[in-house]
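FAQ: What does the model actually see?

It sees only this:
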Amino acid sequence: MPIRNFSIIAHIDHGKSTLADRLLQETKAVSERDAKAQLLDSMDLERERGITIKASSVTVHHSFGGEDFQLNFIDTPGHVDFTYEVSRALTACEGALLVVDSTQGVEAQTVANAYLAIENELELIPVVNKIDLPSADPEKVAMEIEQILGLPAEDCIYCSAKTGEGIPELLDAICEKLPEPKPAVMEETRALIFDSHYDDYRGVIVYFRVFDGSLSKGDKIRMMGTERTFTITELGRYTPNPEQAKTIGTSEVGYMVAAIKTLDDVRIGDTITIESNPALKPLPGYEEPKQMVFCDFYPASSESGSKKTEFETLREAVEKLRLNDSSFTYETQHSEALGFGFRCGFLGLLHMEIVQERLEREGGAEIVQTAPTVNYQVELTDGTVLDIHNPADLPDPSQIKSICEPIVKVEIICPDESIGDLMRLCEGRRGVFKGQRFVSEGRQMLDYELPLAEIIYDFYDKLKSITRGYGTMDYEIVEFRADRLVKVSILVNGTPVEALSIICHKEKAEVRTRAILLKLRRQIDRHQFEIALQAAIGGKIIARETVKGYRKNVTAKCYGGDITRKRKLLEKQKKGKRRMKAIGNVHIPQSAFLSILEQGD
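And it is asked to produce this:
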């Protein structure tokens, strides 16, 4: 039986998951009764937000030219944070459907995903989707695809994933144009793990693509990277419901259960081989995902009135989620202000939001989250280079030679009338202009190099508001570059609060910290004594705000008489305030930490 392995790639909201639904219906993999929108997006969060977070693989059958073709396809996420999921899926395929919305045209992520597929030497079929919409202009979009990506306009297939128009032609094109899988290179079995998830009852479920040989139920297998051995207890394919199989042969995609207890035993990109007849050389795997955004998660309240403390609930939730999502990292952290928590690393801001929401829903944990930071490389005077995720971990300034921050290459596709405002936005964020390209009538692509720290807060929101929702961006890390970066400490009543310290550019330090201090002043309740809120670089104070203390009118009962009586009472009050300030503790509410997260200009 001929086999075709392909992925569906596109920008966000261009109709990947709906197209996957139509392919399942057209190939009779799903009955009319069981069909529902975004069938492959099984997570509650995916269905609510209308986005794909995890790639899903499915096997269907289609008859073409008198032959029955087995089609293995993977529906991938479109958001820039999940590019890692896309790159993993593409490695398991020989072709890809590049879906473009006929009302929006080519967008930033379309370009990024197309180049990703070309780098992996995949055959691309351009698909112009949503042709049923009144504002659709498929011919113009086909010409745009030819201009920007060099894929001939006549090769484009016009379809509507919503109505099903053009889907049979698309299935025929997949069978006709996509290449056959490459033949096996060796007799020994080699299968690439491209995804895995944890099931409470069956352990780790591993998704794989067989490149050489075959896997059968009952085989004793070895993971070549971790050197662990297991016995396959269940083998099958998703069609899209799990369908068990005795054997999965060369070039096929499937899943297996082998009583694997923890996800540490399975590495994405590892090679599976047979224990009795192992392959000598593993398949080229994947690069480990690089975490780019870091923040701390703390339990919302640490009272230990219940049997299980909030921290234990959070720890269980984090450990469980790590089993299902190997692309985020965590380590235990302690803060004087917030108690015990976790320092977590994410691929991007959306990834961070998704993880936080999943921890609260699936793990039942209430979370306080600190301001997101990026990964810095610090070169010390003795030549060693440290990776710093938390400003509190920075060594003594006398030992630091330079601090390097991650620089990203940003591609922004925007309408012509927004170019001036966007350039001002990028230059205000220390951006370096690299070039400008014509995309189509009325749209341009801007290339900028920007520090990642400048775009992780509200850059995307500002981009969307400037372009009235028509602007799109894609970014990738290009290098670490040294700049005039400093650590700014926030002092409350003379005591540094490490949870609020930040690393930022020296020129912007005063503006940023003044905004933080103003927010803190509004959030901290007045005490019996005056509280000084200060921002300092090393020993130099660069900004200050004051929370005034409560004052009782101690001279109210003095009518006339000698002034010294009033002075004596006021001096007594002043002495008491001074003593209180020396020994008094300032209570910083958690709302103060949360308000500082809302980064505004």
